[in-house]
Design brief:
The complex is a heterodimer of chains A (about 325) and B (about 425). With about 325 residues, chain A is α/β, with parallel strands linked by helices. Chain A is built from 11 helices and 9 strands. In chain A, strands 7-6-5-8-9 form a 5-stranded parallel beta sheet. In chain A, strands 2-1-3-4 form a 4-stranded parallel beta sheet. In chain A, strand 3, helix 4 and strand 4 form a beta-alpha-beta unit. In chain A, helix 1 crosses helix 5, helix 5 crosses helix 6 and helix 5 packs across helix 11. The radius of gyration of chain A is 20 Å and the shape is globular. The two termini of chain A are about 20 Å apart. Chain B has about 425 residues and is an alpha/beta fold. Chain B is built from 13 helices and 17 strands. The chains are: A alpha/beta (about 325), B alpha/beta (about 425). Chains A and B meet through helix 8 of A and helix 3 and helix 4 of B.
Chain lengths: ~325, ~425
């Protein structure tokens, strides 16, 4: 097995072989999840804590389900409503939690780098479920699995990522993962939503969506946050939809068998036409959700194995 | 197929920078060629003898305020069109600072329709931010698709640099032109004159020309950051010029303009609180005025415009600092500009470069040239004919001109738009 990571903080620190290992294991869990009895004992006896400093329904549910199907004891903490309001610092929260002896910690935080800071203070394995505008590794992994299953491979594809690149951790993690797997990546969006210096990251930039979609194998739409819509970064919803919303006319420019992806939740009529989102021949949006649980199970499983091995070595007195 | 020969003219060609005798051939509304005077006109052509007078591309007036919508009693598209034709202006660019402002595709469509049957070409600029409030950018994409020439909040400065930088970044993606009013909003608030001895003696609220330098420095930094296409609407002080030079040397896509009154008048013209001489920015010192004339000659300032701003009598019949700023200028732009020619500062081709060629080029219009294929938008004028200006003879609905009663030289004899005469003997 090639998976050495102690934490899953980002895609950046994963080698291509580690990514492949994780996706291969996730395939097994896809099969498991489609059975009536979806149970494994991979995490039996272990404690998984979901710690979300930012509201989330989908990702938290996905992690919760992944942990429960693997037999872990799962606890959800909506931290944004509790101790943070009482003035506790992030590190104190981490230390408090650490004292409860969890084995796996899934963390989402609105500040970039906060999950890494927390990981340095605890003894368990940490999964980044999204930190600020930095990374969201399990989303990129589930997208990779979805692409691999839909297109039969995960390399030498032309992948167009469209929308709010600047504020998207999904875009960043995908950019890194798909780049590591040697794909051709195009970023499409208004200049106001394009992060600075991105041109130096080996991607192609397009302001004009029609140009950017030409011949693309994968069209990955990003969610446009409501607070960015009115005049700040773009003038209006209707102008955004006109120029950067995915409709049938624009999608016709992509490869005839191009798949359409969206990390959700969607704004129908803002970044994507509802009929395209619902088109079972093009849209793999529901598959992404399904792959999400499997990929998270694989990530939890692999980290738990490494954690057990590490603790085993420590107990045996082996220098690490 | 209609053919027109404008024979025996003094051809002012701003592109070739020539001023020479010749005749001009117009076919189907476009310039078909220029020739020597002796050449016989083609058969069936209408021939007009220009009597040796100057024939030049019609003026392209960069910034014209029209009262539609909102203040039609001050100026309508109809009255502005007539005044423009009489003044030799064949293309006027309407400003978006109306009430309500031109800040949506719907309002741009409205003014485009209203302006459609004008004797001259009317194009429109759009506001840069919604309601010109400096908070949210307008639908630059939709407005650009509908033909907005540029985006500007007029003399209102967008003070929030985050808002401005995002609007500039967004505009860059669409290759849209942003027109800025370089001015520090805090310092220039309430000012009616340029600070100095004159303003102090007359007790007028004043602002240092450095407020313009500060505004320009800020805007140019944002242009360097965002790499958008940008035009400084009015550069009026010598201290601002070095920043402009540096920006061009750094390769920024930056141009600059000036109003005709800042080239022909100075702060002393305000005299005894004459409100027709109140402008934004205020009239400057004589040193600044001369520096600006030189900057136009050097090509550092690209565009001269009338900054036509109609105001009714009541808006001007007020104490100086309370009076509304601005002057009408569609009919006085040409004779006022000729003052610079008669005083020896600028040649006619140099003047027409700033009055017609450069503004057309910057806005992507084919006008402003005497080249084959260009639209036959032309003005025939006698640069020497003297007259005393009577403001009530102006065709604008508003008569607020600082040149009332002034001795001027230069009379428009004829104006053609796309080969059709829109002003002069048989129009």
């Amino acid at each position: 097995m090639t998976f050495r990571a102690r934490h899953l903080l980002g895609i950046d620190h994963l080698a291509p072989a580690e990514i492949t290992t994780l996706l291969d294991l996730a395939e097994d869990y896809v099969a498991l999840n489609r059975r009536t009895v979806k149970h494994s004992d991979a995490l039996a006896g272990m404690t998984l804590i979901n710690m979300f400093f930012e509201n989330s329904t989908r990702t938290q549910a996905s992690f919760e389900l992944a942990g429960k199907r693997l037999g872990a004891d799962v606890m959800n903490m909506a931290v944004s409503h509790s101790s943070v309001k009482k003035g506790e610092t992030l590190i104190d929260t981490a230390l408090t939690l650490n004292a409860m002896q969890p084995d796996l910690l899934v963390v989402r935080h609105p500040s970039s780098g906060a999950v890494k800071l927390l990981a340095e203070k605890v003894n368990c394995a940490v999964i980044n479920a999204g930190d600020g505008r930095h990374e969201h590794p399990t989303q990129a992994l589930l997208d990779a699995l979805t692409i691999r299953r839909a297109r039969g491979r995960l390399h030498r594809l032309t992948i167009a990522i469209c929308g709010d690149i600047a504020h998207s951790r999904v875009a960043r993690s995908n950019l890194i993962l798909l780049g590591k797997m040697e794909n051709r990546i195009r970023l499409i969006g208004p200049a106001t939503l394009m992060p600075a210096g991105v041109a130096e990251m080996g991607v192609e930039l397009y302001e004009d969506m029609r140009e950017g979609l030409k011949g693309a194998d994968v069209v990955m739409m990003l969610r446009l946050q409501r607070e960015r819509m009115d005049g700040g970064f773009i003038p209006s919803e209707r102008e955004y939809y006109h120029r950067w919303g995915l409709d049938a006319e624009k999608l016709a420019l992509a490869a005839p068998d191009a798949i359409v992806m969206h990390p959700g939740p969607m704004n129908r009529g803002v970044e994507i036409d509802g009929t395209i989102a619902d088109d079972i021949n093009r849209s793999v949006i529901q598959d992404q959700v399904e792959m999400g649980v499997a990929v998270r199970m694989a990530a939890l499983d692999l980290l738990a194995r490494n954690l057990r091995a590490e603790r085993g070595r420590a107990a045996a007195g082996v220098m690490v | 197929m209609s053919t027109l020969v404008l024979a025996n003219a003094r051809l002012i060609d701003p592109e070739a920078q020539t001023d020479r005798p010749g005749s001009l051939l117009v076919r189907d509304g476009r310039i078909a060629g220029t020739g020597a005077i002796e050449e016989a006109p083609p058969d069936g052509a209408t021939v007009i003898d220009c009597g040796g007078h100057a024939l030049a591309p019609g003026l392209v007036d960069w910034g014209v305020k029209i009262g539609e919508p909102g203040e039609r009693h001050k100026e309508s598209f109809r009255s502005a069109g007539r005044a423009a034709a009489a003044g030799g202006v064949t293309t006027l660019i309407a400003r978006p600072d109306t009430s309500p402002p031109i800040d949506t595709p719907e309002s741009l469509e409205f003014v485009t329709r209203r302006a459609a049957d004008s004797p001259v070409n009317i194009r429109h600029m759009a506001a840069l931010t919604k309601a010109r409030e400096g908070r949210e950018m307008v639908e630059i994409g939709f407005l650009n698709d509908l033909g907005a020439m540029a985006f500007t909040d007029g003399v209102r400065v967008v003070t929030d640099t985050k808002v401005l930088s995002r609007a500039m970044t967004y505009a860059r993606g669409l290759d849209a032109l942003i027109v800025g009013h370089p001015q520090d909003a805090g310092l220039s608030k309430g000012a009616a004159a340029t600070s100095g001895k004159f303003a102090s003696l007359y007790g007028l609220p004043a602002v240092s020309p450095m407020a313009e330098v500060m505004g320009l420095d800020r805007d140019l930094s944002l242009v360097a950051m965002t790499r958008c296409r940008w035009h400084a609407d009015q550069i009026t002080t010598a201290d601002a010029l070095p920043a402009l030079v540096r920006a061009r040397e750094a390769g920024l896509d930056v141009t600059a303009g000036i109003a005709i009154h800042h080239l022909t008048l100075n702060e002393f013209d305000i005299g005894d609180y004459r409100t027709f001489f109140r402008f934004t920015p205020p009239l400057r010192s004589e040193d600044d005025r001369q520096a600006m004339v030189q900057a136009v000659a050097d090509g550092l300032i690209d565009v001269i415009a009338s900054f036509h701003t109609p105001q009714d009598e009541e808006s001007k019949r007020l104490p100086f600092e309370a009076a509304a700023p601005g002057a009408v200028g569609l009919q006085t732009l040409l004779p006022a500009a000729l003052r610079l020619y008669h005083q020896g500062g600028l040649s006619l081709p140099q003047l027409w470069r700033a009055l017609a060629l450069n503004p057309a080029r910057r806005l992507g219009l084919p006008a402003g040239r005497l080249t084959r294929g260009a639209p036959a938008d032309l003005v025939l004028f006698d640069p020497d004919a003297p007259f005393l200006l009577d403001r009530f003879s102006l065709l604008s609905k508003s008569k607020n001109t600082p040149f009332d009663g002034a001795r001027m030289q230069g009379r428009v004899l004829g104006t053609w738009r796309a080969g059709q005469r829109v002003f002069g003997a048989d129009a």
